[in-house]
Design the sequence.
């Protein structure tokens, strides 16, 4: 005689979620550092390219205009990074994770596999 099939246990709210191994867990501090470095890089590139150079009008703009132009470059760079940036933060994060002995994260949030 055959025995009846027993249902498999279903995951319930009482079961704790599986946690990722420490080496593959995302680290927000590393990501913040990578994004800050990308923003600094972009701001310096903007300043070097003269993107936010003070205008040379008849009245000048005063001493403060140079400082505010620098602040504008910094804020524009942070805004670009907040919207995804140019991909530099992903590469920096990957490198920092490797140096810390962690597995690098793929840009989509999945763990990269190395052959």
Sequence:
């Amino acid at each position: 005689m055959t025995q009846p099939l027993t249902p498999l246990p279903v995951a319930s709210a009482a079961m704790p979620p599986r946690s990722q191994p420490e080496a593959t867990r995302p680290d927000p501090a590393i990501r913040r550092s990578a994004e800050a470095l990308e923003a600094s890089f972009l701001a310096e590139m903007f300043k070097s390219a003269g993107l936010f150079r003070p205008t040379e009008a008849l009245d000048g703009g005063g001493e403060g205009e140079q400082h505010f132009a620098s602040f504008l470059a910094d804020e524009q760079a942070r805004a670009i990074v907040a919207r995804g940036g140019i991909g530099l933060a992903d590469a920096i994060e990957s490198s920092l994770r490797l140096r810390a002995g962690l597995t690098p994260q793929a840009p989509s949030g999945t763990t990269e596999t190395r052959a």
Notes: The CA atoms of residues 103 and 115 lie 13 Å apart. Confidence is low (pLDDT under 50) at residues 108-115.
